[in-house]
Amino acid sequence: MRTHGWAGATPASDEEAIARILRAAGEVIDGGEQELSILRVAERLGVTRQTVYRYFPGTDALLQATATNATGEFLDELAAALHGITDPADAVVEGIATTLERLHTHKRFGLLFAAPGDGRFAPEVTSEIALRTGRHILDRFDVDWTHLGWTDRDLDELAEHMLRTLQSFIIDPGHPPRSGSDLRAYLHRRVAPHATLPRDRTRS
What we know:
Blueprint: H1 14-30, H2 38-45, H3 49-55, H4 59-81, H5 88-105, H6 128-139, H7 152-171, H8 180-190
């Protein structure tokens, strides 16, 4: 069902309306809002709150859809950035650094690491959605984990360690914050060793 308003540019279909609502929600979050509100999204679109409610019954539903939308976008960007990196330690370092850079410029990606149903974007790294996202990140690396001897449990624990490292940097980025080559050098020294299996479990 199409609606009137939309700042003079009515969407051609429900699918377009939903896409524009999700894009607006992401922009509101990227703008620094600590909580997503239907009113702010409606104002950005030039529609009433009732129009948004036709597609999403409440803030939680809109947050969940925005998180799902952001997940695909984030994973695609990360996979492109890490394409061709086959060494586990290098991939983990670049994955963490790139994620921190994306979170800095696109705050909506913080939804990937938030607790379900939470209107705030504080990192909840042990939430189900965060751990699942962390594992998806590892699975999309160009690393042949199976050939190198990694098990599902190893990868789940590595994903959790990566997320806990991310959480630490998000909560306290440092004074001054590390970035670029300085950040990557630090991660190579302190995090990369955790992306290596014990010698007795490494396949030749």
